[in-house]
C-alpha cells in the first residue's frame, strides 16, 4: 500500500487546474485520471477558494522575500531623487536606473540590477510619473498636406522610382539643453528653467528606400577647438555666424551632390527661403 502523502498548496492548485481541463466526467473517473483519491478530490473542490487564497498569499510572500535587500537601495534612491527634484534637476529613466546601481554599490549591494521591471514597480510605489514641465508644440497643417498628397504627389512619384526620391530637411541640435521631460512626484509642482539656445543646424537627407546621405552640420565657428587634431569627420561641416541654413550653404551642398550623381533624382524640401536656389543641376 502506498504511503499517504499530503499535497502542498501548489500541488492542490495544479490538480484543480488539470481537473478544469478534463472533459465532463464523473468525479470518480476524474480522480483516477488525476491520480488522487475521490475523497481528496472532493475535499479540494469544496475548499477550492481557500486553496486559491493560500496560493496567492504564498506568491505575495515570495515577492516580499525577493525585495528583501532592495529596500535600502530604493530608500537611498528616493532620498537622492527628492533632493535633486528640489533643485528642479531634470531626471530621466536611464539616469535613475544608473543612479540606483551606483547607490547599491556604495551600500554593498553589488548584486543589485536596476531592471526595467524593477524601475516600473518602484515608480508606481513612489507615485512618480514622467512629465513635461513646460512648452507646447505647434500642429502641422494636415489639411494642406493631405491635399498635396492627393493632387501633386501621384504625378511626381510616377516619374521616379523610390531609390531616386529624396527628402531633405534641417533640424536644430541644442547640444547644451537639458531634457524637456523629467520624472517627478505626481503631486509635485514642476517649473521650467531657462533653456540654453546654443545650437547646431543639421541637414538630413534620405531616399524613400532608405539610402541616407551624409549629414551636413552647420556651426558658428569655422574651426572649432574640439576639431583640433581631427583629420576625418563622419559628417560634412560648415559654418556661419548664426549656425543657420542659408541659401549659399544649401546651394553648395546641392552642387556637390549633383556632381556625384549619374541619374536624375527628385528632392523634396520645404518652402524655407534658403531652399530657393537658381542653380541649374545637370
TrEMBL record:
SMART domains assigned: CENPB
Residue ranges of every copy of the HTH CENPB-type domain listed in the record: 61-132
Keywords: DNA-binding
Domain of life: Eukaryota
Primary location recorded for the protein, binned into one broad class: nucleus
PROSITE patterns referenced in this protein's UniProt entry, alphabetically: HTH_CENPB (PS51253)
Recorded GO CC terms: nucleus
Family matches, as PANTHER family: PROTEIN PDC2 (PTHR19303:SF73), TRANSPOSON (PTHR19303)
Protein name: Tigger transposable element-derived protein 6-like
Top-level taxonomy: Eukaryota, Metazoa, Ecdysozoa, Arthropoda, Hexapoda
Gene name in the database record: LOC112679823
